Write a sequence for this structure.
């Protein structure tokens, strides 16, 4: 089918970065700044296309994931050790800390349909909170998809979830009848309202995600046989990332149109504010979108972690290997426990934020270096346009890292 040329491994990247955190961040941006910061999302999409294309090209040409490339191509010694420790800290520890939030987002989406309350297990007299049961259910769904051990199955599930998010959030935006002149101005006229620089950092940070570089370089190898498929990979990559950007923009525009200036803290609050527009369907529509965002990220975060460690440790095993499965099971298990009891490991999350802040410019720089090397890529090195754009993206990620670290340490 022709449509399959436009959807594939890159859509998994979109499923990864459109999570509950992105939905909340985009809602906040729309509430506080209207359509003013849409330009930052445009930059985020372009930066993501550039970085993910380099990552996917590395995987297709060399048949190595990012973890393998780091292990084999970085000079041995302190530099390689430091990079590998940073990757472990940001991706393994970070994804374990964030997985609870992914599952909680999916649970919130389901609760919009099922309502709050208690549920009992069978005829037991011990009542369990509905949240705990739904967390176990969401974890079970993610477990089943990942345990299939087939990239094609995981890809098809995630393509379906991205499609669901597209329908929900884009249709809600169109029903809102936004002021299109303001939208166009926000897209093409860079402007940062006073005191809102951290929103720009957050918006870009939720789109340009370090662990997607590891995920993408590995999964493309299942779809594309070699360099002759690079044109197809690039088309599919651009389609998926632009679609993800459209979803994020739709959330911002909907918030800007309907609830700008309101006291909205999350996407669930947005459902109440949209009731005059969507009626009783508001909570069901947005609940569906939040469910898709949460469960898609709950699947991709453990998967990316397993790919990263598999490469770093030099195992070279597949999705059905017990070591590969043990990694994603551990990440998923931590997430289920955190979501079930409502535990938020603040210190661990802060550590992960610092590690991710350092990892993004580091990985962007290493990826640029690897894909600019004829020794690694042969004739498929970065052309001059990609080299220049890559350097620009690296510089911006350095700025983002400094602002992010400054905010974490109370600057």
């Amino acid at each position: 089918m022709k449509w399959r040329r436009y959807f594939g491994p890159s859509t998994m990247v979109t499923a990864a970065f459109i999570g509950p955190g992105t939905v909340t961040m985009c809602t906040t941006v729309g509430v506080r700044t209207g359509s003013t910061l849409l330009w930052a999302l445009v930059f985020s999409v372009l930066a993501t296309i550039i970085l993910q294309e380099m990552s996917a090209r590395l995987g297709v040409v060399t048949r190595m994931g990012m973890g393998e490339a780091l292990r084999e191509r970085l000079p041995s010694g302190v530099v390689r050790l430091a990079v590998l420790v940073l990757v472990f800290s940001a991706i393994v520890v970070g994804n374990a800390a964030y997985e609870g939030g992914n599952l909680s987002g999916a649970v919130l989406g389901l609760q919009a349909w099922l309502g709050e309350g208690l549920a009992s297990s069978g005829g037991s007299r011990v009542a369990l909170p509905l949240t705990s049961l739904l967390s176990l259910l969401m974890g079970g769904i993610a477990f089943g998809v990942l345990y299939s051990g087939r990239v094609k199955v995981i890809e098809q599930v995630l393509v379906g979830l991205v499609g669901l998010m597209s329908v929900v959030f884009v249709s809600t935006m169109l029903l809102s009848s936004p002021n299109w002149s303001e939208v166009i101005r926000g897209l093409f006229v860079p402007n940062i309202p006073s005191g809102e620089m951290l929103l720009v950092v957050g918006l870009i940070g939720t789109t340009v995600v370090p662990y997607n570089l590891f995920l993408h370089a590995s999964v493309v190898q299942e779809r594309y046989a070699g360099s002759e498929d690079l044109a197809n990979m690039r088309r599919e990559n651009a389609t998926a990332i632009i679609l993800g950007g459209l979803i994020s923009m739709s959330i911002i525009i909907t918030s800007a149109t309907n609830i700008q200036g309101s006291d909205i803290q999350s996407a669930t609050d947005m459902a109440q504010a949209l009731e005059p527009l969507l009626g009783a369907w508001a909570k069901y529509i947005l609940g569906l979108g939040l469910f898709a965002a949460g469960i898609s990220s709950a699947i991709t975060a453990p998967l990316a972690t397993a790919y990263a460690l598999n490469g770093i440790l030099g195992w070279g095993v597949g999705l059905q290997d017990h070591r590969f499965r043990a990694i994603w099971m551990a990440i998923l298990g931590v997430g289920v426990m955190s979501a079930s009891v409502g535990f938020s490991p603040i210190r661990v999350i802060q550590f992960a934020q610092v590690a991710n802040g350092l990892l993004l410019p580091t990985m962007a720089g290493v990826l640029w270096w690897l894909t600019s090397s004829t020794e690694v890529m042969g004739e498929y090195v970065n052309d001059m346009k990609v080299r220049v754009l890559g350097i620009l993206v690296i510089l911006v990620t350095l700025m983002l890292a400094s602002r992010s670290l400054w905010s974490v340490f109370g600057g």
User: Anything to note?
Assistant: Residues 117-127 have pLDDT under 50 and may be disordered. Residues 182 and 273 are 21 Å apart (CA to CA).
